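Dig into what follows:

_____
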Amino acid sequence: MKQAGRLRLLNLRYAILQGTFWMAFCGVNNFAAVYLLSRGYDTGTVGVILALSNITAAVAQPLVATFADRSTRMPLNTLSALLVLLTLIFGIVLGVTPNLFFPVAALFLIVFTLTYTVPPLLNAMAMETARAGTPVNFGIARGIGSLTFAGAAYGMGIAVERYGAGVLPVIYIAIYLVVLLFAITFRVCAGKTGAKSGAPIIKEDAVCQPSENSIGAFVKNYPRFILFLISAVLVFFCFGLTNTYLINILESLGGSSAGIGISFALDGVMELIAMLAFGRLARRFSCNSLLRLTGVFFTIKAVAILLAGQVWAVYAAQLFQLLSYGLFVPASVHYTDRIMQPQDRVKGQALVTATLTVGGVFGSLLGGWMLESVGVKDTLLAGAVVSAVGSLIWLGSIEKQPADTKPRNQQTGQVHTKA
């Protein structure tokens, strides 16, 4: 009973950590274009700023992850808390800085980059906790993150409509204070069946050799994973483009910034459903099969947005978030954790996130330029074509799931592996 109570409390704390972080992430990332446009930048300049922000984030993510993999003194929750604290500090400075071209752009870049370094650490915390013998239900926790993201998107859309985009830093700074509290106090403790009792839930490969740290060695060890990352760049080029410039898409159809909140709220609800169902799906289907499915539905969603002739059709296209990004998040986290050597797991999670960020670089940079040059429809058409090419590569790059790593708990989707 006591052990069960501790497990419930740990799952609750982790769910709150995920939930509050994705609320803050929504304010920084999904309203980035709205915020920067309100600061006086034109669409092309916004694209450049977001591209540079994505580049620095893509570089920072594997660097932070490599440090986390090597460090024996700083736990993942402490490192996460430090990054959140830095985000808070720079977010406050950004909020009080007047409309000066370079200072605002630089501060936003720092806040954006720091925000993007946190998700792979939160994902790795769940896997690490499971290996310590206390399985955390990642699917439900991340699903709650999507639910709070949806609520935040809807609320922020209304807040921006009423008070202007300047309210965004105030909102995400307040939320980050809660994230900081739960990150600092999160502790990974060995459970009853954990390492301290001699029977870990996840057993490491006893003959696994230490992984080399060079990029060349990583590419040699995981060639198909690298191919998957390349395909993800193409797919997330379109995904990032449509998310970043959703305001332009909606306005071309007669919508407004309030529609951003509605669209992202629908996305969040779809993600919640997918993540709550992931445990049962993973019981019946392998992670590699589910991951392949998501690659197809990313392009289906892109085509649906391309064909949308009215605002309601854009809302309807968000339903495909269920089997695209919603299913992709838990499937990719579990898939990456299983195919990586223990020394590479945090790095692997970070590289997936970094790859999505790189896709966002091209989506932001080229998307802003294309919108001004050829208009919304042609931009969406180009994005859908690139996504389709990425999906084809994606389907061929996913490795088969090892036979001994199938999730065991169909009710929860917790991280269990045969010993």
